[in-house]
Write a structure and sequence with these properties.
It contains six helices and 20 strands. The chain has helices spanning 14-25, 60-73, 135-138, 154-164, 183-190, 288-308; strands at 8-10, 31-33, 47-48, 58-59, 77-79, 83-87, 93-97, 101-104, 107-109, 113-115, 131-132, 146-150, 169-173, 195-198, 201-209, 214-222, 227-231, 234-237, 241-243, 274-276. The chain has a five-stranded parallel sheet with strand order 5-2-1-9-20, with helices on one face. The structure holds flavin-adenine dinucleotide. The site of flavin-adenine dinucleotide has 41 residues, from helix 1, strand 10 and helix 6.
Length: 312
């Protein structure tokens, strides 16, 4: 019998840590490979107000430290390493990291996703202080204020619709003269009285008071190269997300944008014993709590798989 891990969790965001907590408490002695961004996306944010259990806002890095400590307290082993390749052809699966090859009888993929950014001046500097890629996460900070959303696809329109119920004014800036989003979403948005469109334009710079960490305005350049300043309190970049799935390409079923396919109401992928949880499979909700929920599901499903194979 080849010696192999029961379960290896790839990624250390909310999905990964929750999978680890459940797997460890089920006696599976999980191994986690943390990746380069230990703690995942919440490590780059400040106030988190919508993760249940906390009356007051908590800091993203603090929340992730708690999850890590909780996972470790039940015996999760954490390897600070990066997965370069996987062989999912037969059990035990093989996971090639920067440092070693790990054999594992089940895998939870929790490698997350990243928002696509414009890479313009001021974007990094004001991130978390006016610049965001998540209206559900940060929209409430701009209640009754003026914001701008950049993008023209479904994500942008959904973000703008969400913000239009909270903010005084929502400007949508799009580089073309029409939206790409589904018609039904467009119609809903066109009915909103507090939404204004700025067509054929790009945002080129974000400015504000860096010391006070307050965003003040954005610079917009239209197709005639005319430049205008727009005063806003918040700026939402909604030009899509990229799931971290390159290494699973042609090995697991995914959609055209690289989100790993899972069975409905499950984290099972098209390969028995391989599960996907969190933003890596979720193009819709993209929240810490939904990622954590899927992490829980993946560990329970992995346990059931291992038991069906008489591995545990
Ligand atoms: C600025 C910002 C603010 C946010 N605010 C909120 C908020 O207030 N509330 C909320 O609910 N959500 C918020 N979100 C969204 C939330 O962070 C994500 O939904 C959540 O982190 C997804 O969790 P995850 O575990 O699926 O993946 P992630 O958090 O993306 O973690 C992915 C993990 O996988 C690892 N990884 C990737 N590739 C590899 C590899 N090849 N090998 C090993 N490891 C790998 C990474 O290092 C990382 O640890 C915010 C996101 C951002 C960017």
């Amino acid at each position: 019998m080849v010696k192999a891990e029961n379960i290896t969790i790839i990624g250390s965001g909310p999905a990964g840590y929750t999978a680890a907590i459940y797997a460890a408490r089920a006696g599976l002695s999980p191994l986690m490979i943390s990746g380069l961004e230990q703690g995942g996306q919440l490590m780059i944010t400040t106030d988190v107000e919508n993760y249940p259990g906390f009356e007051k806002p908590v800091q993203g890095p603090w929340l992730m430290e708690q999850m890590k400590n909780q996972a470790k307290s039940f015996g999760t082993r954490i390897l600070v390493d990066f997965v370069k390749d996987v062989d999912l052809n037969s059990l035990p699966f093989k996971i090639k990291t920067e440092k070693e090859v790990i054999k594992s009888n089940s895998i939870v993929i929790a490698t997350g996703a990243k928002a696509n950014w414009l890479n313009i001046k001021g974007e990094q500097e004001f991130m978390g202080f006016g610049v965001s890629a998540c209206a559900t996460c940060d929209g409430f900070f701009f209640k009754d204020k003026d914001v701008a959303v950049v993008g023209g696809g479904n994500t942008a329109i959904e973000e703008a619709l969400f913000l239009s119920n909270l903010c005084r004014k929502v400007h949508i800036i799009h580089r073309r003269d029409k939206l790409r989003a589904e018609k039904i979403l467009q119609e809903r948005l066109f009915q909103k009285k507090n939404v204004e469109f700025i067509w054929d334009s790009n945002v080129t710079e974000i400015t504000g008071d860096l010391e006070k960490k307050v965003l003040k305005s954005i610079t917009i350049k239209n197709k005639n190269n005319e430049i205008n300043q727009l005063s806003v309190d918040g700026f939402f970049v909604a030009i899509g997300h990229s799931p971290a799935t390159t290494l699973f390409k042609n090995k697991l079923q995914m959609d055209n944008d690289g989100y790993i396919f899972t069975e409905p109401n499950s984290t099972k992928t098209d390969i028995d014993g391989v599960f996907a949880a969190g933003d890596v499979t979720d193009r819709l909700y993209r929240q810490a709590v939904t990622a954590a929920g899927m992490g829980c599901m993946s560990a329970i499903e992995a346990e059931s798989f291992l038991s069906s194979k008489k591995i545990i």
